[in-house]
Amino acid sequence: MSTDHLHNAPVQRAVEYHQPTPLPPAVAVPAPVVPVQPNSVPTVASIVLPDGRVVTGYAIEPARQEPVATKPAVSRTAVNVALGGIGFLAVCGGLLLLTTFITALTALITQLITLAAVIFGGWITVQVFSAKRRQGGTTVNIRKAVIKRNHFHG
Predict the structure, then answer these.
(1) What is the pTM of this model?
(2) Beta-carbon neighbour count of residue 111 at 10 Å?
(3) What is the three-class DSSP state of 150?
(4) What's the DSSP call for residue 52?
(5) d(Cα 137, Cα 145) in Å, to the nearest integer?
(6) Contact of 146 with 152, CB cutoff 8 Å
(7) Are 35 and 44 spatial neighbours (Cβ–Cβ below 8 Å)?
(8) What is the rounded average pLDDT for all residues in the chain?
């Protein structure tokens, strides 16, 4: 029996459909209109054109220019140079402190190594000179020992 037809058959899967839920339309509530009296009644101007027609309308005030920004008392370049100099001095001071710290740490480590050498050398000296006064180690009397199967029994 051949199983080739099983590998070529399309695979069927269950499919779910999701429908979007519509949102209700937003209702705009208009703001209440409050009548406001103008501060003053604008002036009405009339102009007679060359062909004899008269145009009447409100006078338009000329456009006001925006105030010119005042220049600072010190130029921005001078401020940037000064800030750069302060930053450079801060970095140099930090490097000086770091160098001083590393030098002090090196001196401390050197002193600790010297102290350990003096203490260890003193201990070795005491061991050497005290060994001459007393006999150290274990003394075994071989004549009394009994040897059985490569073990000593005394």
Answers:
(1) 0.34
(2) 10
(3) coil
(4) S
(5) 18
(6) yes
(7) no
(8) 77
